[in-house]
Amino acid sequence: NAGTFCKTSVFGVFVEDEISLSDRTELTLGVRADRWRAFDGGLGGLNSANQKVITRYDTRSQTSVDPKLSLQTRVSETLSLQLSLGTATRFPTVGELYQGTFDPVAQIILPDSFDPNLKAEKSKDISLIARRKFARSNLTLSAFGQDIDDAIFSFQGINQFGNTVSNYKNIARMKQYGVEAIYEAKDFVITGLDLNGSVSWMDAKTVENPANRAAEGVQFPRIPRWRSNGSDMG
Fold it and tell me: Among residues 73, 40, 45, 72, which one has the least CA distance to residue 57?
């Protein structure tokens, strides 16, 4: 029998203040602080003498402070603009840190199939949103960008026994930016028919990945360049 185990905890506080700059413009300032811990982590298994052997990993902790700023203005009764800036930190989960791959041939959890030293993701974000109201509909246009250090992503590969294994790694740096349009309409064409739809374009690429240089400059996996969806309720 073999298994990995771990616990994580996050304690955070968030403070925000809204400042009125004019009758039409507000400035919102905020900051979030988090304290993260990963503890009681280990890898257990049976040795050749059928005895339980446990390898324990050191407790880890990290503190993050992320400021945020948002400037909102009403250009007219039907048009508003919002500019947002900020940073964000995403700490690795238990599954990302200690979800090891069990090898059915060797009958062990592969020690290299998980990384208890994964770093937290750190991103810098910017977005500009324009909202336009019409008689029975709303149109939202947004442009956004994100620069991420140490993005956490699962890689797959084939081991020496021909089995597919996967583990989470840090990608040194990735960037993504794009635009999106969202349309919402009430009583569209006929009374009682509501319509919601969106279309977006995104350029998301790996900038630096020492573990796989071939991935640099390539569209990031599982992030489509074009995406659209829609629904109607009647």
Answer: 40
DSSP code at position 92? P
Q: What is the pLDDT of residue 55?
A: 84
Say how far apart CA 125 and CA 141 lie, in whole Å: 17
* Measured CA distances, 75 to 23, 27, 82, 120, 210 (Å): 11, 15, 10, 39, 46
| CA 154 – CA 78 distance, rounded (Å) | 44
Residue type, 58: D
In this prediction, residues 115-129 reach a mean pLDDT of 96
- Max Cα–Cα distance, the chain, nearest Å: 78
CB 176 within 8 A of CB 206: no
pLDDT attached to residue 233: 73
Question: How far is it, in rounded angstroms, from Cα 83 to Cα 176?
Answer: 18
Can you tell me the mean pLDDT for 194-217?
Answer: 92
Please report, for the chain, how many H helices and E strands are present, in that order: 1, 12
Q: In whole angstroms, how far apart are CA 145 and each of 9, 149, 169?
A: 29, 14, 23
Query: Cα–Cα distance between 32 and 66 in angstroms, integer?
Result: 5
Q: Is 229 left (phi over 0), alpha (psi -120 to 50) or beta?
A: beta
**DSSP-derived 3-state class of residue 116:** coil
Percent of the chain predicted with pLDDT > 90:
65
3-state SS class at 76: coil
Q: Report yes or no: 201 and 226 within 8 Å, Cβ to Cβ.
A: yes
Give the separation between CA 146 and CA 174, rounded to whole angstroms: 8
